[in-house]
Automatic annotation (TrEMBL):
Gene Ontology CC terms: cytoplasm
Gene Ontology molecular function: 3-deoxy-7-phosphoheptulonate synthase activity
Reactions it catalyzes: D-erythrose 4-phosphate + phosphoenolpyruvate + H2O = 7-phospho-2-dehydro-3-deoxy-D-arabino-heptonate + phosphate
Protein name: Phospho-2-dehydro-3-deoxyheptonate aldolase
Keyword Amino-acid biosynthesis tagged: yes
GO biological process: amino acid biosynthetic process; aromatic amino acid family biosynthetic process; chorismate biosynthetic process
Cited Pfam families: DAHP_synth_1
Primary role: Stereospecific condensation of phosphoenolpyruvate (PEP) and D-erythrose-4-phosphate (E4P) giving rise to 3-deoxy-D-arabino-heptulosonate-7-phosphate (DAHP).
Species this protein is from: Desulfosarcina ovata subsp. ovata
Length: 359
């Protein structure tokens, strides 16, 4: 009898299970406290009980331990300066969605060579990075693309995001319903807010879905629903960080009182026209809407705006990189190889200025 399955599969190899990875990199008391305290702080901000501004900032993609820890050190120092007005979360992205093909992140290809795809090593690197950042007291946020990574790393994540390409995914909505951290859903790539609202409704509801247990065995998962799912505006066919667009999002949320009436704005992607140099301008426009004044001109403050996102690296811009041709050892670990980012100096200036305005 002819075979009817795996006709395009070249081979299968096992990967490290969730419990094995946690045994190799066990939680510490300090890391546990960072995760739990940060989640509670973020929840309080989303609830409106904590009036601080949530800012998720960090590299478009993590490409090395050295890069992640150095950015974390800088962020930890800055957090101490702005603690009364701002909660900082580091953007620690290990998985990258691709429109067609390309570098899919450190977990998929930790050697960045388009040949080895040593996922075990990628998962180990990712967990080590998250452990070290949490040990430093740095709250970590990431985009969830795969259930595999989520099952192995989510215990170290304070805030998670579902990207524009996957907001419509039933699987991602189900996973989010079971996550222990707050989860932001971005509007669709076309700017459709209804897609994100439907995702929030699904993820906040109890679900039953197929997942894995700590040993990697397929099982049924029963979730209670995640009440801390919220919307992230990232632009679409046009930017949506302006007062009219944010009001529209608030009006749609108001039709569903069970949902969090909170909005986070992504200052990158389509809101900046994919021009990293415009992120600061977007940030300041949203900040004015949040606080309601600038140079003596007053508008009605919008308290629904509870946070913003920045794509920021240690050095600005994007370096020359051809996946499969550029060697990892030839890369500058402090400059992006995916989306261009603002540099640390600008990042610090933006956040310190916001701190002064919020005071």
């Amino acid at each position: 009898m002819k075979k009817t399955y795996d006709l395009n599969v070249l081979k299968r190899t096992s990967i490290i299970t969730p419990d094995q990875l946690r045994e190799e990199f066990p939680m510490t008391e300090k890391a546990t406290r960072t995760v739990l305290d940060s989640r509670q702080e973020i929840k309080a901000i989303l609830d409106g009980k904590d009036q601080r501004l949530l800012i998720i900032t960090g590299p478009c993609s993590i490409i090395s331990h050295r890069q992640a820890v150095r950015y974390g050190e800088l962020l930890a120092e800055l957090q101490e300066k702005v603690k009364p007005t701002i909660k900082l979360v580091m953007r620690v992205y290990f998985e990258k969605p691709r429109t067609n093909v390309g570098f899919k992140g450190l977990i998929s290809d930790p050697h960045i060579d388009k040949q080895t795809f040593d996922i075990d090593e990628g998962l180990r690197k990712a967990r080590k990075i998250l452990m070290d950042l949490n040990e430093m007291g740095v709250a970590c946020g990431t985009e969830i693309l795969s259930q595999t990574a989520a099952e192995r790393l989510s215990g170290l994540i304070a805030w998670a995001c579902i990207g524009a390409r996957t907001t419509e995914s039933q699987n991602h909505r189900e996973w989010a319903s079971a996550f222990s951290m707050p989860v932001g859903f971005k509007n669709g790539t076309d700017g459709n807010l209804g897609t994100a609202i439907n995702a929030l409704l699904a993820a906040s509801t109890p679900q039953v879905f197929i997942g894995n247990d700590p040993f990697g065995v397929t099982s049924r998962v029963f979730s209670s629903g995640n009440k801390y799912c919220h919307i992230v505006l990232r632009g679409g066919k046009r930017p949506n960080y302006d007062p009219v667009s944010i009001s529209e999002a608030c009006e749609m949320l108001a039709n569903h009182p069970s949902l969090l009436q909170s909005v986070i704005v992504d200052c990158s992607h389509k809101n900046s026209g994919k021009d990293y140099r415009k992120q600061g301008e977007v940030f300041n426009h949203v900040l004015i809407q949040r606080i309601g004044h600038t140079n003596g001109i007053h508008i009605k403050p919008n308290k629904a705006i509870c946070g913003m996102m920045l794509e920021s690296n240690i050095e600005a811009g994007k370096q020359a990189f051809v996946y499969g041709e550029t060697r990892k050892e030839d890369l500058n670990p402090f400059i992006s190889i995916t989306d261009a980012c603002i540099g640390w100096d600008e990042t610090e200036e933006i956040i310190l200025t916001a701190h002064r305005q919020l005071k």
